Task: inverse folding
């Protein structure tokens, strides 16, 4: 897995420096803040966007992934959607990437259609999957991009919280997006995250971490 | 169609709860009772009668929740209810 360190006065500058070194775009990488100070920010940027395996090239050992791929391909064919389905390599759980032209309709409002397709896929694959095992379906890396975006939002919010000391309430998000934020901030000693409100308007609040009571 | 929209909103809320339970954001503990409550809220709306199969799908989703069926199955049934409700609008 390729990675590079980047330095800059701001987080954006540091990330950009690493991206230039890697020759990658922002959507294909994962960013980890190593240190952050008023003068300089140091980040590690890891390329996570591996080239997708060609259709049907899943490892024979991974029959489940191939079965899932074939199933989604069939579903799309019945729906009249021309798209390519590939198994994302090196991911757990099994993740299927759908790519093609004009697939916005397959994503739907706030990813609703994509989510429905994922539910149908998991129900149809039910017998092939172990207890609790699930298949993730992504269209044009929509889900992956959303995770990256909300992670960046979380890091920006954390910086602002550190500067002002005030908590910030983010927009309503889906569960996988909220989880991405909680994970992004879980190791931050100064800033923490929690959620308020009810689905589907549940929001993450990023605020100063309270000192543990003794 | 404000009534239909209200019904769609309630169904979407139930779907969001089911999806949150499946995705496990780790920031709330969702019980089948809460999901069932959200589905019952949908069943109480008169607007769901607009679509011929909306009540049927909601009933199936409620049964699936009570029977401990996988979250994806419940979600799929709720999406079917949402789709049936949408079809009733296009028939108007």
Result:
């Amino acid at each position: 897995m390729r990675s590079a360190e980047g330095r800059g006065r701001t987080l954006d500058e540091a990330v950009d420096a690493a991206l230039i070194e890697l020759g990658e775009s922002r959507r294909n990488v994962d960013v980890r803040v190593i240190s952050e100070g008023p003068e300089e920010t140091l980040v590690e940027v890891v390329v996570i966007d591996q080239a997708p395996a060609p259709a049907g090239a899943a490892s024979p050992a991974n029959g489940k992934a191939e079965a899932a791929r074939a199933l989604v391909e069939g579903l799309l064919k019945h729906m009249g959607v021309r798209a390519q389905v590939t198994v994302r390599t090196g991911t757990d759980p099994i993740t299927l990437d759908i790519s093609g032209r004009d697939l916005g309709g397959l994503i739907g409002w706030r990813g609703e259609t994509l989510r429905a397709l994922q539910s149908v896929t998991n129900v149809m694959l039910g017998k092939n999957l172990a207890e609790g095992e699930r298949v993730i379906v992504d269209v044009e890396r929509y889900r992956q991009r959303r995770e990256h975006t909300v992670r960046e939002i979380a890091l920006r919010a954390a910086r602002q919280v550190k500067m002002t000391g005030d908590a910030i309430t983010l927009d309503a998000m889906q569960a996988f997006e909220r989880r991405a934020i909680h994970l992004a901030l879980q190791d931050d000693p100064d800033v923490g995250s929690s959620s308020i409100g009810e689905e589907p308007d549940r929001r993450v609040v990023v605020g100063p971490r309270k000192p543990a009571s003794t | 169609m404000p009534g239909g929209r209200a019904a769609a909103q309630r169904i979407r809320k139930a779907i969001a709860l089911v999806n949150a339970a499946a995705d496990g954001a780790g920031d709330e503990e969702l019980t089948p009772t809460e999901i069932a409550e959200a589905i019952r809220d949908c069943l109480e709306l008169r607007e769901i009668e607009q679509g011929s199969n909306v009540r049927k799908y909601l009933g199936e989703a409620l049964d699936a929740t009570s029977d401990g069926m996988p979250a994806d199955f419940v979600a799929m049934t709720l999406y079917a209810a949402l789709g049936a409700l949408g079809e009733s609008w296009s028939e108007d």
Observations:
- Chain B has one domain: 2-91.
- The CA atoms of residues 27 and 40 of chain B lie 24 Å apart.
- The radius of gyration of chain B is 13 Å.
- The mean pLDDT of chain B is 87.
